[in-house]
Specification:
- By secondary structure, the chain is of the alpha+beta class.
- It has 3 domains: 189 residues, no CATH class; 229 residues, 3-Layer(aba) Sandwich (Rossmann fold); 75 residues.
- The protein is built from 20 helices and 18 strands.
- The strands form 3 sheets. Strands 1, 2, 3, 4, 5, 6, 7 and 8 form an 8-stranded antiparallel sheet that branches. Strands 11-10-9-12-13-15-14 form a 7-stranded mixed sheet, with helices on both faces.
- One of its GO terms (biological process) is tRNA methylation.
- Its main location: cytoplasm.
Length: 701
């Protein structure tokens, strides 16, 4: 047994020892935050057990009412999805979306016993309860944890006092200070798979957490040729929290450092444990922020996702080489591959839950480059994409990928009654409408949205409170829309190279099909309320439609009357074309360039000359050297602030520039060969290197 690393932790916020267990929960449940060669983990089972010696004497794991009684008096580590601990790290693996509201952990009162503080800080909940993903995989049944722990406990009592002392953080042969209750977790560590990855098989571990003694021990499992599973003693390591003279320390210990075997993935070198893991644990332990988002890939099987993602990445990686758009090919290709992998696993698990055989159909609203539609269609899901503007890359996909150019407006003509899923991948102004369109298309229609830009029903989203980040508030708004439309809305974090990686999913309804009529009235009331119109009381009819909805139902009162059938048909068409909420503006078909580059040349020259004359007529700048007697005096011009220049220009010119996303400053920066822009508010005269002719547009010879 050897201590390979130790670091002192400054705790000005009095967050320890609770903060330590929050940091441990990150490494337990999301080790990929620190070890980028991992895809994630699956928590298969969790048990509360007694001290190993008691187990060896024939006591069973604590279950039933006894477990509930002791759980109420003991700390159990809280899941990071529940909020304790730091947010996810920044980077392509996790992005920066994990930072949520700045909420602090409870502070420890002065004089409180650290062990009691650890318990009090964690009584709110337990992390990583065995999820459906673990049950579905079936690689390691949860019942195996009991037999594995029983066998391990007997081996400790039967002649391994060193491991027993290591596990309890005490000297060999000594008893622990008090009978400890241990939290034992069985987890499967999933490495990233790839052609250059030497280890693709998941590895399994037992994690033993002793809160009262401040230790968490990782016991790797190995399977022999006959299928017997036991603890692999060579790679056992422990993270320990200790206190000495009011100072806290976090240490990493290895049971057999001379036998440590590093595979470079699941088990890195001891130096990595000290330099990377120990440093992160120390930092996370005293961070007062907590995540306002779910953990990554919390709704699907990580093992299935990892395999599917690697398969799709290999299959579609050549798209990067032939990408014809001006956007970054690696970002967009691999982001869409990751989204496609997520949807494929989500839909596969949905088919298993519902007993379906046919693959789900879909429509991607605002599909952009169409790559997501192409991947999903190629993988066997019937569907199409719709976008207001055609992209160059659409012609490369082939006829099997159905992409349509057209604007989607929220009305009765843009419903999809025979489609299973509606997708909104960075769908901008359509994002809040997709749950509404899905709800009104059919009772069985579901939705998946990945919000990016912040749009409301009729334009840019307006914030209503400042306690949350704008991103978190917008996600809550889209979730509110889904709930108002009658969906059970679930949230998950994707593993994509983006800061906006939280998706919202509506798979089921909160009402029965018989309640569709009253539910649609509530939708209408909610949508009208978001525009500022007063909501109708529950049970009353929604507000009458705008007058244009009645067009076609009758002719001019002085003219001939249309037949009843024709009037009914005209009225139905008018109602179908009527917007659900007036004021919605679809995206323009032509992408506008608004950086002053498309302004008329004579207008640009006029403004440039006008500003140049203002600078040349002003007080000249001191060049720092006396002019030569043989050369003509050089008028470098003066210096003016942008505000001073703007006051000299007429109102029509300023308004025309203001519509170009930057205005006067953008135009002057575009003409950097004439002007020097030393600060955001300063405009200097022409550069001496260009000669005085540059101010008049003449080329010096």
């Amino acid at each position: 047994m050897a201590e390979v690393g130790r670091v002192a932790v400054r705790d000005p916020g009095a967050l320890l020892p609770g903060g330590f267990w929050a940091a441990v929960a990150v490494w337990l449940e999301r080790p990929q935050v620190a070890n980028k060669r991992l895809c994630g983990v699956r928590l298969d089972a969790r048990r509360s057990v007694g001290f190993p010696r008691a187990e060896a004497c024939g006591h069973s794991p604590i279950t039933g009412p006894q477990q509930e009684e002791r759980a109420a008096a003991r700390p159990c580590l809280r899941s990071l999805s529940g909020g304790l601990g730091p947010g996810p790290s920044t980077g392509p693996e996790l992005g920066t979306a994990g930072r949520g509201p700045e909420e602090s952990q409870p502070r420890r009162p002065q004089g409180e016993d650290p062990r009691e503080a650890a318990a009090a800080a964690q009584l709110a909940g337990c992390p990583g309860q065995p999820g459906k993903a673990g049950v579905r995989e079936g690689d390691f049944p949860a019942s195996d944890l009991d037999s594995l722990w029983d066998a391990f406990s007997r081996s400790l009592a039967g002649g391994n006092p060193e491991m027993l002392a290591f596990l309890t953080g005490s000297r060999a042969g000594s008893q622990p200070e008090a009978p400890s209750e241990l939290d034992v977790v069985l987890r499967t560590v999933i490495p990233k798979t790839g052609p250059h990855c030497p280890l693709a098989a998941p590895r399994r571990e037992i994690v033993v957490q002793d809160v009262l003694n401040g230790t968490v021990t990782f016991l790797p499992l190995e399977e022999d040729d006959r299928g017997n599973v036991k603890v692999e003693m060579s790679n056992v390591y422990q993270v320990r929290l200790s206190q000495s003279q009011e100072e806290w320390f976090i240490s990493i210990l290895i049971f057999c450092p001379e036998k440590w075997h590093s595979d470079g993935i699941v088990y890195p070198k001891p130096a990595w444990l000290v330099e990377e893991l120990l440093a992160r644990l120390a930092r996370w332990s005293v961070e007062s922020k907590r995540s306002g988002f779910k953990s990554t890939l919390s709704l699907i099987s990580i093992i299935k996702y990892s395999k599917t993602y690697q398969m799709l990445k290999e299959k579609y990686k050549d798209m990067v080489k032939v990408w014809p758009e001006v956007t970054d090919p690696e970002k967009f290709v691999y982001e869409d591959v990751a989204i496609a992998a997520y949807l494929l696993i989500l839909w596969e698990e949905e088919r298993a839950e519902r007993g379906l055989m046919a693959k789900q159909s879909f429509v991607d609203l605002g599909c952009g480059n169409g790559l997501l539609v192409h991947i999903l269609s190629t993988e066997g899901h019937p569907g199409r994409g719709i976008d207001v503007r055609r992209r160059k890359i659409w012609d490369m996909y082939g006829p099997q990928t159905c992409l349509e150019e057209g604007a989607i407006t929220p009305n009765d003509k843009n419903l999809f009654p025979h489609v299973d899923w509606l997708i909104g991948n960075h769908s901008d102004e359509l994002t809040p409408w997709i749950p509404v369109i899905a709800a009104r298309s059919s009772y069985g229609c579901r939705f998946f949205v990945l919000p990016c830009c912040f749009f409301g029903f009729t334009g840019k989203y307006s914030r209503r409170q400042s306690r949350k980040t704008q991103y978190r508030e917008y996600l809550d708004f889209i979730k509110e829309v889904g709930l108002a439309c009658g969906f059970h809305v679930e949230e998950d974090c994707l593993r994509i190279p983006s800061t906006k990686r939280v998706c919202l999913i509506g798979k089921s309804r909160t009402y029965s099909p018989a309640g569709e009529g009253s539910m649609d009235e509530q939708r209408t009331q909610y949508i009208n309320s978001r525009r500022g119109r007063p909501m109708s009381p529950p049970g009353e009819a929604p507000a009458p439609p705008p007058p244009r909805a009645a067009l076609g139902r009758a002719g001019h009162p002085d003219g001939p009357q249309a037949p009843d059938a024709e009037a009914a048909k005209g009225g139905a068409e008018a109602r179908a074309n009527q917007l659900w909420l007036s004021g919605f503006q679809p995206r323009e078909k032509a992408e506008r360039v608004r950086n002053c580059a498309t302004l008329p040349r004579d207008f640009i020259d006029q403004v440039v000359l006008q500003v140049a004359h203002l600078l040349l007529d002003g007080e000249q700048l001191n060049t720092g050297s006396a002019p030569s007697s043989s050369s003509k005096a050089w008028n470098r011009g003066g210096s003016l602030s942008l505000a001073e220049v703007a006051r000299k220009l007429d109102r029509g010119t300023l308004q025309r520039l203001k519509r170009e996303c930057g205005g006067l400053q953008t135009l002057l920066r575009n003409n950097h060969q004439v002007f020097e822009d030393n600060s955001p508010s300063t405009c200097c005269g022409p550069s001496p290197a260009l000669g005085p002719e540059a101010t008049t547009g003449k080329n010096p010879r």
